[in-house]
Amino acid sequence: MTTSTIQPTEKMYRLGTESAFDVLAKAEALARSGKPIINLGIGQPDFKTPPHIVEAAIQALRDGHHGYTPAPGIPELREAVAEDIANRRGVNVDPNRIVIVPGGKVTMFFAILMFGDPGTEILYPNPGFPIYESLINFTGAKAVPVPLLEEKDFSFDADSVLASITPNTRLLIINSPANPTGGAIPKSEIDKLVAGLAAHPHVAILSDEIYDRMTYDGREHVSLLNYPEIQDRLILLNGWSKTYAMTGWRMGYGVWPEGLAEMATRLAINCHSCVNAATQYAGIAALKGPQDSVEEMTAAFNARRKVIVEGLNSLPGVTCRTPGGAFYAFPNITGTGMTSQQFQDRVLEEAGVATISGTSFGSYGEGYVRFSYANSVENIEAALEKVRKLLAG
Ligand SMILES: Cc1ncc(COP(=O)(O)O)c(C=O)c1O
User: Fold this and answer.
1) Phi, psi of 176, deg, nearest 5
2) Which helix (H) or strand (E) holds 30?
3) What are the DSSP E strand ranges found in the chain?
4) Which has the closest alpha carbon to 104: 278, 283, 277?
5) CB 292 within 8 A of CB 328
6) What is the pLDDT of residues 70-84, one digit of tens each?
7) Given ligand 1 and candidates 179, 209, 272, which is best to mutate, with the most ligand atoms within 8 Å of its CB?
């Protein structure tokens, strides 16, 4: 056998990752070795997909939906998404602008590929979902962080976002409610941002609204779909993963400006052809069926949010803002004297609690740790006690 001299391209070495998957693997290895682990690292609902959605997929398989579907999704599903948007946002979107893809991530992947090139700049939230920065670096574009600060409850400052735009800026990514901070951007700040964007017509916007159904304390989700003045440059990312506890089904959607929907479809044809057919039927059942499970899940998250925020604030050296949405708390742990990574490692190895270091979400995450409260109140309380013992230690 000759020694291989294969050469993956340079950009492959710039691709980052989502360390939540590494923590999950480490937590599972510790659990297998007999150490009890409570997982507050995971970013997915701890609920099962509602039965009527599962049944719709089984029925679709029985009905013989075994082949390829149109690349952007079956028409009934695209229409169901448009109907859902009309019902919830009061906005009419042409189903031809909707592209169904295998997970929320895929819309992000396509949008960043479409706008990222060496010499261009992309603004992204930091701390934020790690895939944004990873993909921007992959394309060779310059990743320009929009810092999300604790003192602003992890919302952004529209004026500083607008001040970061240059003639080379191609794309602005926003995510509200946000991973990992749970921050929700108030309407006043979005109004200001959209008004300011009028002076920058060369900037496309990717609005990741995957947690739109998970907001608390009477907060209304502010969707960028409700700003007609930016519809010709808005890419809206949403999906089924979080809302309907369907992370493993792999399905999401993008609402694209006219013209870009065809480009997204072309990327889909080059990549995955179409989403699994039976899953698409499940997606119709999710949107058109009863929504009680969404409300029940959000109510459960809300109850746990109170438990975790109160518990974290009672730990020595830890302070925690009250998150406005999603299912994450992002406490400040600087008072413990540990770095975020040390906190993550020690809490996992010594207390048996999986969390994710804030630095996994970007450089502005130093000093913070993400706790997911997609776990039972009982487990959250037990985890907090274990961390308390460690910190008292
Ligand atoms: C902000 C954000 N966007 C997108 C996604 C991706 O969702 P999906 O599992 O549907 O690809 C996630 C998942 O954690 C997320 O937190």
Assistant:
1) -150, 130
2) helix 20-32
3) 38-39, 98-101, 121-126, 142-147, 169-175, 204-208, 234-239, 252-255, 328-329, 353-354, 356-357, 369-372
4) 283
5) no
6) 999 999 999 999 999
7) 179
The pLDDT of residue 292 is above 90: yes
Q: How far is CA 199 from CA 155, 160, 163, 233, in A?
A: 22, 14, 11, 13
Here the tokens at position 280 are: 């698409």
Find, among 114, 162, 161, the residue nearest to 141 by Cα.
Answer: 114
- How far apart, in whole angstroms, are the C-alpha atoms of residue 270 and residue 106? 13
Nearest CA among 10, 26, 19 for reference residue 130: 19
Residue 382 to residues 12, 159, 245, 344, 389: CA-CA distances in angstroms?
41, 42, 24, 17, 11
The angle that helices 75-89 and 277-288 make with each other, rounded to 10 degrees, is: 30
pTM assigned to the model: 0.97
C-alpha of residue 159 to centroid of ligand 1, in Å: 27
Residue type, 46: D
Tell me, in angstroms, the distance from the centre of ligand 1 to residue 104's CA.
Answer: 5
Q: For a substitution probing ligand 1, which of 24, 99, 107, 129 has the most ligand atoms within 8 Å of its CB?
A: 129
Angle at alpha carbon of residue 343, lines to 338 and 348, rounded to 5°: 155
- Separation of 207 CA from ligand 1 center, angstroms? 12
Distance in angstroms (rounded) separating the CA atoms of residues 255 and 47: 27
E-state strands within 177-227: 204-208
The answer to whether the beta carbons of residues 86 and 93 sit under 8 Å apart is yes
Please, which pLDDT band fits residue 232 given cuts at 50, 70 and 90? very high
- Lining ligand 1 with CB less than 6 A are 43, 103-105, 129, 175, 179, 208, 210, 239, 241, 247, 252
- Residue 356: which of 341, 376, 346, 367 has the closest Cα? 341
| CA dist 324 → 33, 127, 193 (Å) | 37, 16, 20
- Please classify residue 47 by burial: count the beta carbons closer than 10 Å to its beta carbon, then call 0-12 exposed, 13-18 middle and 19+ buried: middle
